[in-house]
Amino acid sequence: MSEEEKRIRVVIDGNAVEVPATSRDPVTGKPVPTTMIQACKAAGVKVPHYCYHRDLPVAGNCRMCLVEFGTPALGPDRKPIIETDGTPRINRSPRPVIACATPVSPGMEIYTDTPKVRKMRREVLEFLLINHPLDCPICDQAGECKLQEYSVEYGDANSRFVENKEHKPKQVELGPRIILDDERCILCTRCIRFTRDIVGDDALGIINRGGRSTLTNYPGRPFDNNYTLNTVDICPVGAHTSKDFRSRMRVWFLKETPSICAGCGTGCNMIIGSRENKIYRFTPRRNDAVNKSWMCDYGRLNFKWIESKERLNRVVVRDGRGREEISDWASALGSLVARLKTLPHGVSGVIGSAGLSVEELFLLKMLSNWLGGVTDSVPNIGEEDNLLVSADKNPNSKGAELTGVAAKPMGSEIKHMAGRIKDGTLKALFVFGEDVTEHGIVPELLDKLELLVVADVLPNSTSNAAHYLFPGAAYVEKKGTFLNVRGRAQRFFKAVEPPGSAHAEFELLVELLRLLRITVDNNTVEGVFERFISELDESSDLTWDGLGDDGVDMTGRTDAGGSG
Amino acid sequence: MRIERKELNWWEKPYIPAVVYGFLVTVRRFFSRKVTMQYPEERWVVPEGFRGAPYLVRDQEGRIKCVACQLCEFVCPPKAITVTPPGPEADPEAGNVEKCPRDFHIDMLRCIYCGLCQEVCPEEAIFLMKDNTLCGYNREEMDYDMGRLLDLGGVREDKIRKWKNK
What value does the CA radius of gyration of chain A take, rounded to a whole number of Å? Predict the structure, then answer.
């Protein structure tokens, strides 16, 4: 039996559980002994803690996770002594230990709910609150604050502290996106460990001693790496606040919608916090296979464009000779379908953005097959880093490849399309979510087209030239699936309504296919996804619900992960 | 249950004695102490603890006491209260160092005068005052904004003065 498979039996609050003898260190990945807090989690017992975080190195400074324990008493033969009733005799430790840093041993008993443990928690909280400003009404963390939660659960209602509180700096600008309130800080050092060990930017530290200990950044060196906003999430109190979200909305009002970040191909899992059709923040959603507990600052703040006043929100029909009218979906689709039916086979091209969902790209491919056209997507390559950011800036490149919309390699077909428009053999072009004028099909070429159908979210040179312009929805305004660079299919859901008469491109495509009498067996997002899966691999039993919260790795099921 | 109608006797049958008796009651009231109020010129003085319209108050130094914690908005059963938080930039002129509402609306047509906003307020910034029978010519007029609520609320002596030494 290898070291990793060895299991240890421990008893937690009277319930026996088996836990692995070792677990992986969150930073180095090497096997380290399983700690009491991990064993308690496996047993479903919550141990309150501040400084411990499962994706950070252990510091053991908050003392909130103190528990009592006992180990089996050994006889002279080094075997556990068995009492007359058959249970092993337990030697209870005279002193408590911190559950986050103490390894478990075979036969160990852990007690997390004794009067002594509760008293220790109450006293630790009393110390933590000595210099705490108790400004919950103006604190952004209120509602998701561990100090609040544990105070309610274990703390004392009355303060015995009659001395003057220590005052520390408030509203310190740590960096361009973070404001620090040192009075609220409980010195757990989670932020220090995160930025030092996970990001590799050793920018934060604690200066001074005792009650005057103050968290600060190195003088003259702003805390400005691309992951600073994660410290706001992992801060168990309201010391780190996001400059963007600060004082904007209380967290208990926010509706939480599970989603996927569309900032790059990594596809970090996230939660959209919205209220009354307005997005307030993105926060990372834990997924060990993709982003652990983290998310980059760029992705997290990448929602301002969704609320842009520029957003396309009306159906526009242009006749190509300068006349332009605001139309509605029914009549615009009706006249478009009439035009499409007169169109000869094989004179159309489809450019579908790799920012569309898998389902939309699949329907787009069906439409293109009916038209007998060529399809492609636009590659978008940028910089990558060693933590989360991927070089592929499209959230769904793998989806575009698997549905067959993207040419091989992606973007190689666009040049041919431009040439065919020039010599007049390509008469109709469908552009979904891209500005093709920046990718080789210049506006003069677009003017040569007989039919240009565009669905997009923000106006650009392509949408300005469209004969049929349908306002689309951003990914937070619709439901669907993205395949990330490593071929993992992940679901995202609708958080807010699209503006004006904009609709998800999925709805546009379903309606268009219905009017063209192209059969889509089940024209829901779920149905289209399952049809996509069955066309990839007939034996696959993967369903929409089967994707779950964490998504499913499609590598191995298909050739999705072949190149990535 | 059936109730037998009482048979009137010869004295009751012409109704004249009843009319005279009724008139005597009226005449007696005419000379006694008047109890009718000349509403709306004359108003009832409400007792202490009366739950009238909720208004915002300032402290003795003229600072807005509300810190936009939005607990009243959360607790309000008919959703009459709408608070606009300030966002990251605090207004230095408001006198509140860190946070005060950018706007605060109470739809008085929705308010049910339950007093939960006053009860939940951690800053003692909103009070149900004695004003009752609010009226207006249209719905917009009955949606009180922050300036109006503060003017109507006036000043409350504040012992703590949260922002004084910040």
Answer: 29
